[in-house]
């Protein structure tokens, strides 16, 4: 079921990190340095949402609208199909003295007030879920004579206006050596979430990565995700090396060849007299993930060399012939290629052969730990090979850390003893769920997400009404009340309580909990 209140980025792994995508009323910044190509993230998100029947406004400041549309086409994204719901806001043509044929334009791109006039008029038209995107917030820093601080003040104003309309604002920002304090304000204070886009090696010759840097509705992953950009295609998560190994004749080459056929990928094999003596290689793309599979020789003399094969592997597939298993060799291979923090799967191949042992039998004979999948398949079956790779991908792709911050546990535990309290959580304004006690099937992430979303809208409304900052918010949700209280600059306390009875004691205990959180932060 599609959640219309959450909009996809078009990059599955990033959507997973963001608990499904970007909720309406939220703002997102993609931050990178020159050559990082962070603008492609904005473009992919725009096209994904156009294809989902959403309306998008795309502010282009560094090139003409025609060039902007051509840039989308370069990635295979033809925006002309969605011309009624895709508006290019032209902030380029007036800059070079040309007239604009676009419906929306910035009359004087060197004036932030002129930008404000155009952007504010668009925001006033937004419906919930509509998207306002900036191809380059950096261009405003470069072009507007007012300076970066003034640009930021206006951007914050646009964010608050859009929140009240239920819109989503997305920025691309390329750091071209601006003042470090100003950049810090862009990364940490401008949007609800910041995604950092970077590269590996000088001039990013070894590849690119992205990583959520801050997010007030989801946990943050511990490690970055590698990706590559293809034309056409856009951004795909890239897994540089998956090792496919196992005893001779177990079906490694068949597995790699079948995997290559799943996406018409390239396949190379070095085969002599029916056995692989060097290594198979295939390039495969599955559900937004691109990966390189490397098969190894399986003969015993080659086993000592497998450790070198396994260097830099992000995942390992160990294949066993379940009809004629060579357990001694398989066990030796496993002990040779296994590496700390590198996930692996054992494949019980040739399940269609007479006398094949099932996955549980293979697990027992090889003494495979219970948390390691053992999958029974036929390597010539594309569906089963894909299922195997998807399982391994799920183990490789970084999931946000679920470990709580232990120093806050006692605060949550004491709150739970208060009559009427159903659940409690402490969440960082940067999006990290630090501690939670959420019985009855309520998930801590959902509780924190609801709190940050409600508070985000309420704070914008309060400032719009001239009421200043909110210190505490109580919202009725069906038969319960959600209390959101700012504990300090970095943390929120969230309490879900029954509506019946007096809410006063709950609020009093929450205030006491806030004091304890502040004390714990001071002493940490």
Brief summary:
With 524 residues, the chain is an alpha/beta fold.
Task: Describe the protein's topology.
Blueprint: E1 6-7, H1 12-17, E2 22-23, E3 27-32, H2 39-51, E4 56-60, H3 65-74, E5 86-90, E6 104-105, H4 112-123, E7 131-134, H5 137-143, H6 148-165, E8 168-174, H7 180-189, E9 193-199, E10 208-215, E11 225-230, E12 234-245, H8 252-262, E13 267-268, E14 271-272, E15 275-276, E16 281-286, E17 289-295, H9 306-310, E18 315-321, H10 327-337, E19 344-349, H11 359-366, E20 374-376, H12 382-396, H13 409-416, E21 421-428, E22 433-437, H14 444-464, E23 472-477, E24 480-486, E25 491-498, H15 504-523
Parallel strand pairs: 3-8, 3-9, 4-5, 4-7, 5-6, 7-8, 12-17, 12-18, 18-19, 19-20
Antiparallel strand pairs: 1-2, 9-10, 10-11, 11-12, 13-16, 14-15, 16-17, 21-22, 21-25, 23-24, 24-25
Organism: Methanocella conradii (strain DSM 24694 / JCM 17849 / CGMCC 1.5162 / HZ254)
GO molecular function: GTP binding; GTPase activity
Domain Roadblock/LAMTOR2: 408-497
Describe this protein's structure:
With 524 residues, the protein is an alpha/beta fold. The chain has three domains: 220 residues, Rossmann fold (3-Layer(aba) Sandwich), CATH 3.40.50.300; 162 residues, Rossmann fold; 117 residues, Beta-Lactamase. Helix content is 33%, strand content 26%. The strands form four sheets. The protein has a 16-stranded mixed sheet that branches. Helix 4 runs parallel beside helix 6 and helix 6 packs across helix 14. The longest helix has 21 residues. This is GTPase. GO terms for molecular function: GTP binding; GTPase activity.
């Amino acid at each position: 079921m599609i959640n219309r209140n959450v909009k996809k980025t078009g990059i599955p792994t990033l959507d997973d990190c963001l608990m499904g995508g970007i909720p309406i009323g939220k703002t997102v910044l993609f931050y990178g340095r020159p050559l990082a190509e962070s603008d492609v993230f904005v473009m992919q998100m725009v096209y994904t949402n156009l294809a989902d029947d959403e309306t998008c406004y795309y502010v282009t400041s560094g090139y003409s609208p025609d060039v902007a549309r051509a840039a989308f086409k370069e990635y295979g994204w033809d925006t002309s199909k969605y011309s009624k719901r895709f508006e290019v806001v032209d902030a380029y043509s007036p800059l070079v003295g040309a007239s604009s044929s676009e419906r929306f334009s910035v009359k004087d791109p060197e004036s932030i007030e002129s930008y404000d006039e155009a952007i504010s008029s668009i925001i006033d038209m937004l419906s919930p879920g509509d998207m306002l995107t900036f191809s380059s917030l950096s261009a405003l820093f470069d072009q507007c004579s007012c300076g970066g601080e003034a640009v930021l003040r206006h951007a914050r104003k646009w964010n608050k206006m859009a929140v009240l309309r239920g819109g989503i604002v997305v920025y691309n920002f390329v750091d071209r050596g601006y003042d470090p304090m100003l950049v810090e304000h862009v990364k940490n204070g401008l949007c609800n979430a910041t995604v950092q886009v970077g590269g590996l090696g000088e001039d990013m010759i070894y590849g690119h990565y992205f990583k959520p840097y801050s997010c007030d509705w989801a946990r943050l992953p511990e490690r970055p995700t590698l990706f590559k950009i293809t034309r056409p295609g856009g951004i795909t998560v890239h897994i540089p090396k998956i090792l496919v190994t196992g005893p001779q004749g177990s079906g490694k080459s068949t597995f790699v060849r079948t995997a290559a056929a799943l996406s018409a990928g390239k396949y190379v094999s070095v085969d002599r007299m029916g056995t692989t003596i060097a290594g198979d290689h295939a390039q495969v793309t599955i559900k937004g993930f691109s990966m390189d599979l490397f098969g190894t020789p399986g003969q015993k003399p080659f086993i000592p060399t497998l450790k070198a094969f396994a260097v830099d592997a992000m995942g390992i597939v160990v294949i066993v012939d379940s009809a004629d298993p060579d357990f001694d060799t398989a066990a030796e291979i496993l002990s040779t290629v296994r590496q700390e923090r590198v996930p692996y799967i054992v494949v019980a191949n040739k399940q269609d052969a007479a006398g094949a042992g099932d996955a549980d039998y293979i697990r027992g004979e090889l003494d495979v730990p219970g948390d390691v999948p053992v999958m029974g398949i036929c390597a010539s079956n594309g569906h089963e090979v894909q299922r195997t790779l998807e399982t391994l991908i799920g183990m490789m792709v970084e999931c946000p850390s679920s470990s709580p911050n232990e120093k806050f546990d006692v605060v949550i535990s004491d709150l739970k003893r208060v009559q009427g309290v159903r659940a409690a959580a402490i969440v960082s304004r940067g999006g990290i769920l630090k501690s939670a006690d959420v019985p009855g099937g309520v998930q801590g992430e959902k509780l924190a997400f609801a709190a940050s979303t409600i508070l985000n809208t309420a704070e914008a409304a309060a400032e719009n009404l001239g009421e200043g900052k909110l210190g505490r918010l109580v919202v009725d949700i069906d038969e319960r009340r959600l209390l959101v209280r700012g504990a300090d600059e970095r943390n929120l306390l969230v309490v879900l309580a029954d509506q019946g009875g007096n809410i006063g004691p709950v609020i009093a205990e929450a205030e006491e909990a806030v004091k304890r959180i502040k004390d714990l932060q001071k002493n940490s």
